[in-house]
C-alpha cells in the first residue's frame, strides 16, 4: 500500500507524524466533535449532510472550526484524492485544541483539525448475508436533555460501555435503551424494525443520533412504497418484529436475526431488509460528491 496521508492542521503528514499534544482538550476532556463519512467508487456519500451535522455540532458546543464549509469540503476531498482510495471511510475530528489542564475551553485558542482516510469494513462481509446476533444492554443512552445525541461529540464513553457489554456477551453489536426503557440505538448505528411491511425507527427525542444513513434509508423505503414511522418502541416490539436492521456510515444496512436470544422472523435477513440494502448500494455509487471532479461551491449550501 502506498503512503497514507493524514490532514493535520493544514498539513499532510504520515501516520507516524500525525501527533497531537497531550494538552489537547479532545484528549483531556472529550471536548470536540467528529464525523464519519464514506467514499463509494470515488463519490463521497451525502457530504453536504455530514458537513451540516459537523457545523451544527460545532455551533452547539461553541467550537470554532477554522474553515468555511466550502473550504473544509475541499480539504476533505483533497485528502481522499491524496490517498488514492476509491472506497474508504473518512474520519473528521475537530477538537477544542491545546489548553491548560483546567476545563476552560476559552484557554484553547485554536481547534485541532484532523482528517483520516482509510479502507474500512466493520463487520465481516458474510455477516451481511447471514445477519447479526445482538443483545440489549444495561447501559442507557445519555438523556437528550443532558447531552444531546444530535451533537456528534468526542464523548463516546456511553457507547464504549455498550461495546464492552456486547464483547462480554460475545456479540458484535448491542442496542441501548433510553432512560424510559424505549429502544434508542446501537453503539454506532441506528435501528429499524419492520412489522407488517411498515418501517419503524425511534424519533430523535428518544435519544438517537440523527443518522445520515438512517435518513437515506427512510427516503429509499418511502420511494419503494413502504410506510415509515418515527415512533418510540420497546424491546417487546423488537423481539416480535418481522425484520430488524441497523444503519450507519460504517455498518451501512445490516440485518439483525437474533436479539436477546429471540429469533427475529425466520432467523435470516428478511426480504425488505435485503431489498433496502440492494437499493442503498445502488444509491451510494450513483450519487455523491465526485472526488475527482469536485467544486465545493456548487455542492455545499
Ligand atoms: N448512532 C451513533 C451513536 C453513531 O455513532 C452513528 C455513526 N455515526 C450512527 C448512529 C449512524 O449515523 P450515520 O448514519 O450518520 O453514520
TrEMBL record:
InterPro entries referenced in this protein's UniProt entry, alphabetically: Aminotrans_IV (IPR001544), Aminotrans_IV_CS (IPR018300), Aminotransferase-like (IPR036038), B_amino_transI (IPR005785), BCAT-like_C (IPR043132), BCAT-like_N (IPR043131), Class-IV_PLP-Dep_Aminotrnsfr (IPR050571)
Supply one GO molecular-function term: branched-chain-amino-acid transaminase activity
> Which top EC class is named for this enzyme in its record?
transferase
Q: Which reaction does it catalyse?
A: L-leucine + 2-oxoglutarate = 4-methyl-2-oxopentanoate + L-glutamate; L-valine + 2-oxoglutarate = 3-methyl-2-oxobutanoate + L-glutamate; L-isoleucine + 2-oxoglutarate = (S)-3-methyl-2-oxopentanoate + L-glutamate
The EC number on file is 2.6.1.42
UniProt KW keywords:
Amino-acid biosynthesis, Aminotransferase, Branched-chain amino acid biosynthesis, Plasmid, Pyridoxal phosphate, Transferase
Cofactor entry? pyridoxal 5'-phosphate
Record's Pfam families?
Aminotran_4
Domain of life of the organism encoding this protein: Bacteria
Q: Give the metabolic or biological pathway.
A: Amino-acid biosynthesis; L-isoleucine biosynthesis; L-isoleucine from 2-oxobutanoate: step 4/4; Amino-acid biosynthesis; L-leucine biosynthesis; L-leucine from 3-methyl-2-oxobutanoate: step 4/4; Amino-acid biosynthesis; L-valine biosynthesis; L-valine from pyruvate: step 4/4
Q: Which PROSITE patterns match?
A: AA_TRANSFER_CLASS_4 (PS00770)
Q: What does this protein do?
A: Acts on leucine, isoleucine and valine.
Q: Which family does it belong to?
A: Belongs to the class-IV pyridoxal-phosphate-dependent aminotransferase family.
Q: What PANTHER family does the entry give?
A: AMINO-ACID AMINOTRANSFERASE, AMINODEOXYCHORISMATE LYASE
**Protein name per its UniProtKB record:** Branched-chain-amino-acid aminotransferase
> Which organism encodes this protein?
Robertmurraya mangrovi
Amino acid at each position: 500500500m502506498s503512503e497514507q496521508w493524514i490532514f493535520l492542521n493544514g498539513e499532510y503528514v504520515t501516520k507516524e507524524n500525525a501527533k497531537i499534544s497531550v494538552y489537547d482538550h479532545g484528549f483531556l476532556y472529550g471536548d470536540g466533535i467528529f464525523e464519519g463519512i464514506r467514499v463509494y467508487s470515488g463519490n463521497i456519500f451525502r457530504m453536504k449532510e455530514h458537513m451540516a451535522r459537523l457545523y451544527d455540532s460545532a455551533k452547539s458546543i461553541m467550537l470554532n472550526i477554522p474553515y468555511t464549509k466550502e473550504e473544509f469540503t475541499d480539504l476533505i476531498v483533497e485528502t481522499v484524492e491524496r490517498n488514492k482510495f476509491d472506497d474508504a471511510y473518512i474520519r473528521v475530528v475537530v477538537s477544542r485544541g491545546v489548553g491548560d489542564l483546567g476545563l476552560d475551553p476559552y484557554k484553547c485558542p485554536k481547534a485541532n483539525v484532523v482528517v483520516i482516510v482509510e479502507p474500512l469494513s466493520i463487520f465481516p462481509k458474510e455477516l451481511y448475508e447471514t445477519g447479526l446476533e445482538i443483545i440489549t444492554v444495561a447501559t442507557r443512552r445519555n438523556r437528550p436533555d443532558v447531552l444531546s445525541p444530535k451533537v456528534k461529540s468526542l464523548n463516546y464513553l456511553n457507547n464504549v460501555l455498550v461495546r464492552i457489554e456486547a464483547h462480554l456477551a460475545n456479540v458484535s453489536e448491542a442496542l441501548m435503551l433510553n432512560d424510559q426503557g424505549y429502544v434508542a440505538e446501537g453503539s454506532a448505528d441506528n435501528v429499524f424494525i419492520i412489522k407488517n411491511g411498515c418501517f419503524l425507527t425511534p424519533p430523535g427525542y428518544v435519544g438517537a443520533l440523527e443518522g445520515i444513513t438512517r435518513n437515506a434509508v427512510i427516503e429509499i423505503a418511502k420511494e419503494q412504497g413502504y410506510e415509515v414511522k418515527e415512533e418510540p418502541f420497546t424491546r417487546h416490539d423488537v423481539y416480535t418484529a418481522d425484520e430488524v436492521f441497523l444503519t450507519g456510515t460504517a455498518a451501512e444496512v445490516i440485518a439483525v436475526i437474533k436479539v436477546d436470544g429471540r429469533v427475529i422472523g425466520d432467523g435470516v435477513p428478511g426480504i425488505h431488509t435485503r431489498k433496502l440494502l440492494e437499493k442503498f448500494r445502488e444509491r451510494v455509487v450513483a450519487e455523491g460528491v465526485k472526488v475527482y471532479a469536485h467544486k465545493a461551491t456548487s455542492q455545499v449550501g
